[in-house]
Amino acid sequence: MDTLSTPSVEETMYMGSEEEEDEETNGSEEEDKDDSQTDQSSVGKQQRPAWAPCFFYRAGKEVYNYVGQEIIIQEALDSYAGMIWPAGLALCHYLDTHREQINLVDKAVLEIGAGTGLVSVVAALLGGWVTATDLPEVLNNLRVNLCRNTRGHCRHTPQVATLSWGYDLERTYPSSVYRYDYVLAADVVYHHDFLDELLVTMKHFCKPGTTLIWANKVRFESDLTFTENFKEAFNTSLLAEDGEMKIFMATSREGEECFSDVMLEDPLRQKEGKEWKEIEDKDKKGKEKLVEQKSNEDDLNNHEKISYDELPEKTNMLEDERENEKEDNTECEEEENTVEVLTDEKAQPEDTDSSSEDITGQEIKKETALKENWIPSIGCRIAKDIYHYVGEDIVIYESIDSFGAMMWPAALALCSFLENNRHMVNLKGKEVLELGAGTGLVTIVASLLGASVTATDLPEILGNLRANVIRNTRNRCRHTPQVVALPWSYDLECTHPSSIYHYDYILAADVVYHHNFLDELLVTMKHFCKPGTTLIWANKVRFESDLTFTENFKEAFNTSLLAEDGEMKIFMATNRD
């Protein structure tokens, strides 16, 4: 059995008193300056506290154990690729426990959408010659994680390269040069606009002789459509399955019989001392290796499907955490139980009474061995961060499998602004609606400031949102905040008539990112931002679509810029009617 390891999560530290002391000192030193300089410094002092941080934040750090090594993964912010996704954990575990079926030693391996680099690290530790690829903005954190965890531990130094999925790959990555034994991909299918490009990219690199292994957790209907297209494009088999979590193996449909396995030539790697004689030797052994590879694939196809018993996901809060909070949270037990936990089907063994008489002792041992093969080599807790606003410690549990279940920087900026500008935005006793509440931090701060808040988001977000809100507002607030589902749409007058749903303030933080519902978001803002309502929207610009939305936002409302720090902006808007 593999040793369980618990990831260490960097918690936050608080700052604030030092800045106040600095401001007092600076104030005494500037007393002798002329009036104009004094006026400018006083304006600076009024603006600066609005952005002076009252927290120190580090992205989550996770510690895993695969291939007998401790692997430290530093997550990042501002990108979906900067966090660990459950299919990545599943694929790492499968590769670690099925080394005979998937032998990566000295094999050329390409990972598509490497993200934090965990899968690439494991593949490199298993002896693979790995090239980890992702978008340019992701590579820094990816490179750091790879270097930290593979230096001095691997046969081959893994490489990091930019790879944008697209149709012109034959020009940028010609098949005659870039050829791989294995192509790995984990949780690259989610709600984005590049599923066609992803499939084209998979087909480009998965040539005859290449094995593609794709791990995925189904979340949206688009996942199912992609899976059907994937099966049509490749010869596929299901290696493992546990509910919505699946690992597929795929090979090219074209030219399998005429393929000769040659030494892979990747300009990203340096072939130190490699001679062409080795290439000739491998050419001679190509047919023999192909026959062996096909035999291995047949074995995998006939292999019994294995379930991920007890495989932890970051959406699953460990039982000890729940026990520690049980006494404090008895009133909201139903709400907190909506957070995803290990299901009874996974926790209990399968009922085999009906067929137990026909199973021989040898078969029972084999079944037990298979189950032990899936004992997880990682103990995982969802990230916990502690913030300090309105004189209170706020404990936020992040979740996984959703962009709305992690902390985004505009939420932190908006919380800081609301706390430090109460004279400008007075929420005490006001009716407040938050759009896209996510983890609930903004809702919590608004509630602590005296508002009667309704936090809204998609139904799958509400479990973790409700737990965070209840945990941090019980017995602290004048009004108990509400949590309800609100999909952005055009028929809100039917579901949320303006005559009933009226608010003093609408809050929204980092609700604009790369998704397909920007038009619906603007319609939703306009629906709730009626005369007498003030809309406050905080956003960090990341994509060109953010700029387009901002222009449409300014056309739809009377707007003013409350605060700005580089790409971080906070707008105030009112109805034009």
Question: How is this structure best described in words?
Answer:
It is a single chain. This protein is α/β, with parallel strands linked by helices and 577 residues long. It has three domains: 17-51; 61-302, Vaccinia Virus protein VP39 (Rossmann fold, 3-Layer(aba) Sandwich); 384-574, Rossmann fold (3-Layer(aba) Sandwich), CATH 3.40.50.150. Helix content is 35%, strand content 19%. It contains 20 helices and 18 strands. The strands form four sheets. A seven-stranded mixed beta sheet has the order 5-4-3-6-7-9-8, with helices on both faces. Helix 17 (462-473) links the parallel strand 13 and strand 14. Helix 3 runs parallel beside helix 4 (118-125) and helix 19 (518-528) packs parallel to helix 20. It is elongated and about 65 Å long. Residues 1-25, 27-33, 36-50, 52-58, 256-277, 297-360 and 364-381 have low confidence and may be disordered. It holds the Pfam family Methyltransf_16. Residues 1-46, 273-363 are annotated as: Disordered. One of its GO terms (molecular function) is methyltransferase activity.
Give a brief outline of the structure:
Residues 17-34 have a biased composition (Acidic residues). This protein has 20 helices and 18 strands. It has 577 residues and is α/β, with parallel strands linked by helices.
Low-confidence stretches: 1-25, 27-33, 36-50, 52-58, 256-277, 297-360, 364-381
CATH superfamily of the largest domain: Vaccinia Virus protein VP39
- The count of domains is 3
Examine the secondary-structure arrangement and name the CATH architecture of the largest domain: 3-Layer(aba) Sandwich
Tally of strands? 18
What structural class results from the helix and strand content? Answer: alpha/beta
- CATH topology of the largest domain, what is it called? Rossmann fold
Distance between the termini: 67 Å
Report strand %.
15-25%
Percent in helix: 25-40%
What's the number of helices? 20
Work out the radius of gyration: 27 Å
Oligomer: single chain
The best one-word shape is: elongated
Mean pLDDT: 75
